[in-house]
């Protein structure tokens, strides 16, 4: 016989079968006859064991003489009756004693944990006189209560089909229940209680007693079973807040918590009738149509209505719903109140009057704004249109809700509520679920609580849960939320409505997520045409026998006398009549509009606007200076903000640019943000490490070097009445965060939302958002967004996975026809082309063009997503700078940047016209310069690849009509923009009459990887491209380059030596000044002498040292500033790694009257030093 390690009794003889005793929780009581000898009892009762037998023996003889002389529990044990009155009350112990006090001796008073009658005495462990059984009983009762609270859901009766037992086993119902209770109670299952009617003091951790502090054990067990193992399984004990746990208990444990008034019950039935009636009606009228009905989880509709009503009562004004196909039409009709006739129109197969592809009816969005009858308040409900990709709408809904909160100034989410519906298989199967819910507590992404409802029909298409998840519940992924999960049997309407109501209250009270797991079934196949018996025969045999919940609930209410059967029949026929009338009305519709199903109406934006009017994006230099002065300055002195030395240096460099009226990438971007903020446009930048910038180029958020969490973001302090600027480091998610920011951008057209990828190729993991929302959202759902996506892209020899943002994919998804030359004579051509495209794809090369592109995103009468392939080394490239005049009122976005150097001045002399896009431009101009072909090769940058600038390309063809046409790219042939531009070049050339030329490709050969990881190979490939375009360097070229390098090295040496001797002189001067002071120590002269000798020595070494310095300087210029931030390498490309580094160029200080491109052809002058 085993001894229970905790209780010290033999557990195998204590267990009396629950079914035999009809007891709860395996709690065991054998009524003991007072005549039984202790010896006889001992045989069966292991309370008496070797170690306490003598003690019990004594007690027994005492009790035999006078039953009142022993403790009441022993009296009960030996055969007497336990009563509430003579039970020693726990309060006789020092009930207020804390655990800490107990463990530490409690200040010497009443510290005994073992004493049944401590009474304020010093802590003593009571030995044989203690009433151990009584104490154990109480402790076990407490443990049992806690076990129910923690694990009661494991024994809850959740499955209306009764297939999956409470423990997931396939035993007989009775055995299942035993197993389930064992799973809840674990070791306590084997504990023996003498009397189930014995009264116990309830601990303060339960509210099952209501106003009662004491309850008989049987009643305690009954109540726990009812609360925790009925049709609701509450998972909440993982919540770390005791207060929240208490709140949950108030809403589930308190007697009467789940009671409904008759009128509430009637309302539930009415709503159930509509839910079931809607599906029945569609099934009758459109037998073969897919509608993904909700039958089997019909309670979803009343549950959602309850959430809407309760939330509206609690102050919510706007609800955002995300959901998949299942029950969607029913939700649109019965929750959002989209007119049934409008929904039925979708079934009639009629034509849409507006352009676009539209979408299937069970993906469409809805926006309604109506009076809520229950709360008598207005409420807006949006169901966000979604693709078939399950769960990917989740982050979009969250972002949209968050943006709405911002727009309304709803800082705690009191007025805006997101509700997301999930399928059981998709909730646990799709990673995007985790990515989305994991944002729930992030300051820049929180929605202050989302209500999740899982429509758990216990099957995913044809797959059983046991094959589709490893977790017990499909909701286990949500346990990261530290929020309650209510599992509820969908065939118990009142239990479901109760959970819905509590969920709404929870969200309003705590602003935290909450999950409802509606466990039901699917009455039909995956869709109505599917045969479910193929794959789930037994399940469906049961389903066929089940009455719909609406019927069973109606019968229940009839039994309870709440309604009469006639009332129910009238409800059913009344709703049928409504549907029939709507059906007749819908038949009158001859057409409809996709825009009737728009989920983001943007009131006022589309009305009275000239969509073709392109708004200017340039600003006055004064504004730039104002923004620049704040952006480039350290925090104001009064902030007493310790700034990092490196940041101070960067700010200094920025101020120098301001002075020189020139902007690098960071400044250009800041100008765009700053000017938009000034205009009242809210700007939000989100992504991994965006605050600093992956390449350490942005530094929008400065961190106090001495105080934790003290930050300074200068762009938030440009103007007193500016719009809000948010820049937020995101979680390490692409899909979730991109989806969120897409949703954010949908809330208002007057916001610039930017998502920046760490490296462009990481956008791969967000592909569904690009494919199904961003590139096609407008055509499917008439929904616009001006979201900007920045994808760092360029071949820097950094390996396959950090090089390519996969331009080719985005261009392949662009929907302009490659074979149609558009009407470029139209004066609105540019606007028309932009309006017609599904998104804009750019690969920008100048800060000014970035500035205009960003401003253009929010300037006109339409919104388009912008995918920009962002620079890496070009961020720091000394030539990638724009003079202020490129930002001013006369400037604008340049779709192409034509040649403006020597070749541009004499186009007739040009032999080669090279088109390119992005960073390769800077390589090309350097190589052209090295090859001394500045007058014969013209280089044109295509900044906006899609939509293709046909008109401007045509002009270039005209201008260089005799030149050979070349497309140069650094990407591999099957990648980059080549396949997109090739077809469009052909169309342009064809259109350009008599032109027989064609564009030849110069780039890397096809490859499955986006780049080599080997630097030598990288440079060799580079040389091949450049040799292909410019030919090999001639001897004269080489000599000139060598001379140039030498001259530059000499100059650097001289400068270095000069600065060294200058600093030495200063030091000597300082030392001399010190020497003028009275000498204090006799040995001072000697020391000074030896020091000056040392100085002499080092002066001699100066020239050598400065040579090293110069080399170092140049190496630095040609190598990455840090691992994450590659410095421009174009200067060193030709000479593979082993070769001597070449100096890079520095941009000339811009003068407002010089054209931007003249910088590119300028030969190194005396200011040309390697950029640090
Ligand atoms: C990402 C994704 N994968 C696969 C599918 C195909 N599919 C559509 S519905 C479905 C079953 C989903 O099961 P569940 O989430 O339980 O929802 P239910 O259809 O049962 O309501 C599947 C596999 C899809 N639409 N999206």
TrEMBL record:
<feature type="compositionally biased region" description="Gly residues">
    <location>
        <begin position="104"/>
        <end position="121"/>
    </location>
</feature>
<keyword id="KW-0479">Metal-binding</keyword>
<keyword id="KW-0496">Mitochondrion</keyword>
<feature type="region of interest" description="Disordered">
    <location>
        <begin position="1053"/>
        <end position="1172"/>
    </location>
</feature>
<dbReference type="GO" id="GO:0006099">
    <property type="term" value="P:tricarboxylic acid cycle"/>
</dbReference>
<dbReference type="InterPro" id="IPR011603">
    <property type="entry name" value="2oxoglutarate_DH_E1"/>
</dbReference>
<dbReference type="Pfam" id="PF16870">
    <property type="entry name" value="OxoGdeHyase_C"/>
</dbReference>
<dbReference type="InterPro" id="IPR029061">
    <property type="entry name" value="THDP-binding"/>
</dbReference>
<dbReference type="Pfam" id="PF02779">
    <property type="entry name" value="Transket_pyr"/>
</dbReference>
<keyword id="KW-0324">Glycolysis</keyword>
<keyword id="KW-0809">Transit peptide</keyword>
<keyword id="KW-0560">Oxidoreductase</keyword>
<dbReference type="GO" id="GO:0006096">
    <property type="term" value="P:glycolytic process"/>
</dbReference>
<feature type="compositionally biased region" description="Low complexity">
    <location>
        <begin position="1117"/>
        <end position="1141"/>
    </location>
</feature>
<dbReference type="Pfam" id="PF00676">
    <property type="entry name" value="E1_dh"/>
</dbReference>
<comment type="function">
    <text>The 2-oxoglutarate dehydrogenase complex catalyzes the overall conversion of 2-oxoglutarate to succinyl-CoA and CO(2). It contains multiple copies of three enzymatic components: 2-oxoglutarate dehydrogenase (E1), dihydrolipoamide succinyltransferase (E2) and lipoamide dehydrogenase (E3).</text>
</comment>
<dbReference type="GO" id="GO:0005739">
    <property type="term" value="C:mitochondrion"/>
</dbReference>
<dbReference type="InterPro" id="IPR031717">
    <property type="entry name" value="ODO-1/KGD_C"/>
</dbReference>
<dbReference type="InterPro" id="IPR032106">
    <property type="entry name" value="2-oxogl_dehyd_N"/>
</dbReference>
<feature type="compositionally biased region" description="Basic residues">
    <location>
        <begin position="1062"/>
        <end position="1071"/>
    </location>
</feature>
<dbReference type="GO" id="GO:0045252">
    <property type="term" value="C:oxoglutarate dehydrogenase complex"/>
</dbReference>
<feature type="region of interest" description="Disordered">
    <location>
        <begin position="83"/>
        <end position="125"/>
    </location>
</feature>
<dbReference type="InterPro" id="IPR042179">
    <property type="entry name" value="KGD_C_sf"/>
</dbReference>
<dbReference type="Pfam" id="PF16078">
    <property type="entry name" value="2-oxogl_dehyd_N"/>
</dbReference>
<feature type="compositionally biased region" description="Basic and acidic residues">
    <location>
        <begin position="1072"/>
        <end position="1099"/>
    </location>
</feature>
<feature type="compositionally biased region" description="Basic and acidic residues">
    <location>
        <begin position="1145"/>
        <end position="1154"/>
    </location>
</feature>
<dbReference type="InterPro" id="IPR005475">
    <property type="entry name" value="Transketolase-like_Pyr-bd"/>
</dbReference>
<dbReference type="GO" id="GO:0004591">
    <property type="term" value="F:oxoglutarate dehydrogenase (succinyl-transferring) activity"/>
</dbReference>
<comment type="similarity">
    <text>Belongs to the alpha-ketoglutarate dehydrogenase family.</text>
</comment>
<protein>
    <recommendedName>
        <fullName>2-oxoglutarate dehydrogenase, mitochondrial</fullName>
        <ecNumber>1.2.4.2</ecNumber>
    </recommendedName>
</protein>
<keyword id="KW-0460">Magnesium</keyword>
<dbReference type="GO" id="GO:0046872">
    <property type="term" value="F:metal ion binding"/>
</dbReference>
<keyword id="KW-0786">Thiamine pyrophosphate</keyword>
<dbReference type="GO" id="GO:0030976">
    <property type="term" value="F:thiamine pyrophosphate binding"/>
</dbReference>
<dbReference type="InterPro" id="IPR001017">
    <property type="entry name" value="DH_E1"/>
</dbReference>
<feature type="domain" description="Transketolase-like pyrimidine-binding">
    <location>
        <begin position="663"/>
        <end position="877"/>
    </location>
</feature>
């Amino acid at each position: 016989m085993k001894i229970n390690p905790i209780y010290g009794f033999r557990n195998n003889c204590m267990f009396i079968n629950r079914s035999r005793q009809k007891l709860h929780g395996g709690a065991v009581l054998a009524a003991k006859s007072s005549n039984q000898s202790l010896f006889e009892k001992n045989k069966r009762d292991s309370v008496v064991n070797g170690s306490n037998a003598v003690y019990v023996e004594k007690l027994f003889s005492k009790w035999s003489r006078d039953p009142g002389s022993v403790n009441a529990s022993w009296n009960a044990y030996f055969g007497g009756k336990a009563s509430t009155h003579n039970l020693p009350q726990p309060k006789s112990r020092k009930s207020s004693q804390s655990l800490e006090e107990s463990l530490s001796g409690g200040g010497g008073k009443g510290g005994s944990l073992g004493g049944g009658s401590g009474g304020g005495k010093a802590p003593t462990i009571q030995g044989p006189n203690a009433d151990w059984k009584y104490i154990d009983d109480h402790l076990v009762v407490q443990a049992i209560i806690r076990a129910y609270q923690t694990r009661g859901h494991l024994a809850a009766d959740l499955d209306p089909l009764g297939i999956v037992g409470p423990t997931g086993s396939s035993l007989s119902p009775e055995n299942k229940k035993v197993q389930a209770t064992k799973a809840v109670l674990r070791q306590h299952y084997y504990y023996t209680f003498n009397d189930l009617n014995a009264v116990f003091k309830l601990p303060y951790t339960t509210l099952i007693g209501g106003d009662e502090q004491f309850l008989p054990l049987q009643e305690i067990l009954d109540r726990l079973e009812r609360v925790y193992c009925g049709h609701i399984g509450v998972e909440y004990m993982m919540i770390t807040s005791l207060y929240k746990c208490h709140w949950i208990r108030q809403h589930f444990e308190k007697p009467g918590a789940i009671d409904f008034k008759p009128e509430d019950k009637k309302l539930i039935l009415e709503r159930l009738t509509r839910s079931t009636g809607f599906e029945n009606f569609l099934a009758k009228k459109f037998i073969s149509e897919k509608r993904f009905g909700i039958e089997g989880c019909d309670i979803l509709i009343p549950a959602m209505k309850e959430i809407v009503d309760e939330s509206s009562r609690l102050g919510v004004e706007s609800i955002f719903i995300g959901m998949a196909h299942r029950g969607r039409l029913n939700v649109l009709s019965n929750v959002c109140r989209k007119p049934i006739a409008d929904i039925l129109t979708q079934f009639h197969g009629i034509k849409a009057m507006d352009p676009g592809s539209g979408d299937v009816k069970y993906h469409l969005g809805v926006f309604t704004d109506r009076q809520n009858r229950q709360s008598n308040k207005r409420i807006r409900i949006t169901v966000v249109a979604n693709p078939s990709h399950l769960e990917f709408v989740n982050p979009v809904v969250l972002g949209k809700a968050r943006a709405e909160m911002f727009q309304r100034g709803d800082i705690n989410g009191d007025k805006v509520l997101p509700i997301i519906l999930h399928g059981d298989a998709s909730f646990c199967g799709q990673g995007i679920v985790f990515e989305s819910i994991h944002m729930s507590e992030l300051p820049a992404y929180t929605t202050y609580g989302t209500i999740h409802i899982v429509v758990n029909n216990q099957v995913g298409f044809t797959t059983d849960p046991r094959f589709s998840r490893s977790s017990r519940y499909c909701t286990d992924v949500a346990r990261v939320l530290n929020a309650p999960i209510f599992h509820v049997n969908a065939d118990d309407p009142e239990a479901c409505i109760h959970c819905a109501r509590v969920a709404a209250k929870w969200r309003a009270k705590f602003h935290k997520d909450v999950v409802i797991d509606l466990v039901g079934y699917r009455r039909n196949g995956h869709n109505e045409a599917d045969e479910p018996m193929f794959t789930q025969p037994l399940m469906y045999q049961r389903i066929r026998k089940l009455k719909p919940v609406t019927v069973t609930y109606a019968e229940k209410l009839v039994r309870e006398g709440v309604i009469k059967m006639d009332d129910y029949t009238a409800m059913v026929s009344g709703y049928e009549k409504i549907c029939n009338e709507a059906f007749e009305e819908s038949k009158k519709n001859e057409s409809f509009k996709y825009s009737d199903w728009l989920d983001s109406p943007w009131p006022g934006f589309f009305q009275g606007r000239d969509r073709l009017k392109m708004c200017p994006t340039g600003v006055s230099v004064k504004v730039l200076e104002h923004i620049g002065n704040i952006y480039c300055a350290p925090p104001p002195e009064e902030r007493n903000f310790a700034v990092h030395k490196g940041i101070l240096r960067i700010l200094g460099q920025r101020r120098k640019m301001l002075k020189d009226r020139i902007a690098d990438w960071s400044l250009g971007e800041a100008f765009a943000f700053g000017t938009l903020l000034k205009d009242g446009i809210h700007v939000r930048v989100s992504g991994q490490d965006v605050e600093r910038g992956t390449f350490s180029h942005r530094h929008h958020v400065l961190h106090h070097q001495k105080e934790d969490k003290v930050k300074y973001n200068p762009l938030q302090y440009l103007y007193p009445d500016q719009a809000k600027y948010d820049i937020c480091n995101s979680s390490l998610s692409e899909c979730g965060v991109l989806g969120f920011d897409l949703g954010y951008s949908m809330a208002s057209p007057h916001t610039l939302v930017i998502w920046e990828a760490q490296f462009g190729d990481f956008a791969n993991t967000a592909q569904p958002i690009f494919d199904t929302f961003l590139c096609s959202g407008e055509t499917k759902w008439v929904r616009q967004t001006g979201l900007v996506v920045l994808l760092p892209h360029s071949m820097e020899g950094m390996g396959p996975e950090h090089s390519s943002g996969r331009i080719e994919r985005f261009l392949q998804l662009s929907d302009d026809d490659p074979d149609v030359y558009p009407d470029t004579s139209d004066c609105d051509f540019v606007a028309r082309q932009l309006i017609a495209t599904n998104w804009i794809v750019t690969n920008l090369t100048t800060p000014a063009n970035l500035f205009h592109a960003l401003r253009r995103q929010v300037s006109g009468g339409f919104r388009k997503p912008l995918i920009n392939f962002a620079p890496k080394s070009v961020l720091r490239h000394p030539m990638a700078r724009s003079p202020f005049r490129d930002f001013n009122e006369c400037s604008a976005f340049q779709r192409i940047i034509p040649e403006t150097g020597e070749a541009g001045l004499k186009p007739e002399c040009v032999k080669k016209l090279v088109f390119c896009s992005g960073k390769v431009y800077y390589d090309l101009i350097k190589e052209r310069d090295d090859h001394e072909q500045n007058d014969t090769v013209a280089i044109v940058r295509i900044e906006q690849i899609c939509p293709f600038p046909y008109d401007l390309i045509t002009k270039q063809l005209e201008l260089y009509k005799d030149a050979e046409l070349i497309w140069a790219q650094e990407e591999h042939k099957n990648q980059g923009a080549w396949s997109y531009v090739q077809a469009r070049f052909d169309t342009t050339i064809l259109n350009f009459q008599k032109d027989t030329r064609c564009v030849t490709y110069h780039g890397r050969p096809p490859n499955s990887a986006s780049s080599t990881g080997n630097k030598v190979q990288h440079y060799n490939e580079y040389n091949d491209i450049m040799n292909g375009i410019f030919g090999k360097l001639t001897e004269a070229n080489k000599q000139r380059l060598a001379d140039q390098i030498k001259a530059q090295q000499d100059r650097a040496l001289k400068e270095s030596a000069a600065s060294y001797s200058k600093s030495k002189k200063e030091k000597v001067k300082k030392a001399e000044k010190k020497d003028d002071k009275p000498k204090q120590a006799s040995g001072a002269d000697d020391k000074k002498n030896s020091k000056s000798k040392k100085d002499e020595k080092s002066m001699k070494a100066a020239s050598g040292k400065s040579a090293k310095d110069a080399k170092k300087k140049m190496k630095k210029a040609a190598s990455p500033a840090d691992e994450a931030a590659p410095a421009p390498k174009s200067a060193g490309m030709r000479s593979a790694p082993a070769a001597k580094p070449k100096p890079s160029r520095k941009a000339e200080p811009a003068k407002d009257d010089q054209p931007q491109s003249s910088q590119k052809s300028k030969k190194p002058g005396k200011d040309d030093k390697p950029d640090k």
